[in-house]
Design brief:
Elements lengths: L1 H17 L6 E4 L2 E4 L4 H8 L4 E10 L5 E12 L6 E8 L2 E10 L2
Length: 105
């Protein structure tokens, strides 16, 4: 019984090690980036994104007028059909979110 338990734990450990990098991280070649890294490091390690989009929201000024305010950018990286696209949210020069997208092309 104890031997079976050790075998099962070993198998579970191997499965956990085989899982892909989780959301919140971005792999560019051999480098790993995480939330909190700067956009300078992102550009050096991963290059220019395929697409940059402004993220905006509506805010009301002191006079009651609605204004569109840019609060962040969403950078899209496409590393080819063998990997998922990566959506990187950037605020004030810092990576705040990394999400997996669909398979690249």
């Amino acid at each position: 019984m104890e031997r079976q338990m050790k075998s099962l734990l070993s198998l579970l450990l191997l499965c956990a090690l085989a899982l892909p990098v989780s959301a919140g991280t971005l792999r560019c070649k051999r480098d790993l980036l995480t939330e909190g890294d700067s956009t300078a490091i992102l550009l050096v390690r991963c290059g220019q994104p395929m697409l940059r989009e402004d993220l905006t929201r509506y805010e009301e000024n002191g006079f009651g007028a609605r204004m569109t305010v840019k609060y962040a950018e969403r950078w899209t990286y496409n590393f080819g059909s063998s990997q998922f696209m990566q959506f990187v949210t950037v605020e004030n020069g810092v990576i705040t979110e990394i999400e997996d997208g669909p398979r690249g092309q």
